[in-house]
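User: I'm curious whether this sequence folds into something compact or stays loose and floppy. Could you predict its structure so I can see for myself?
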Amino acid sequence: MVGLTAAALRIRGFIVTNGELKDCGAAALRAAVLKALILDKVVPGTVVARVHDGLVKLCGSAERQYQREQAELVCARVPGVMAVRNEISLTPRSARPRSAHLCGAQ
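Assistant: Here's the prediction. I'll summarize afterward.
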């Protein structure tokens, strides 16, 4: 089971819960990424995530570099995420628009 589990974790859309291998559809993966970002107190609410085929694209803004790095780390730890592209811009509080910048088309 260990070999199967390790291989499955490299394949988009699979997670391991309580030692059992489960298929994690695109919607479930997106929900898991968003939940992880929301629950992390360091990641600002101005960060937006788009998920497609196991790739997470982070957009929006943050005031500090450590917030950008934390968002990327949080997403990378979600089972089923294959890669994270961090396009979060650093914007001082006074220069940041009221609404979060949405991720553009890839």
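Summary: The beta strands are 14-17, 20-23, 47-52, 55-62, 83-86, 89-90. Residues 25-106 form a domain with the Histidine-containing Protein; Chain: A; fold (CATH 3.30.1340.30).
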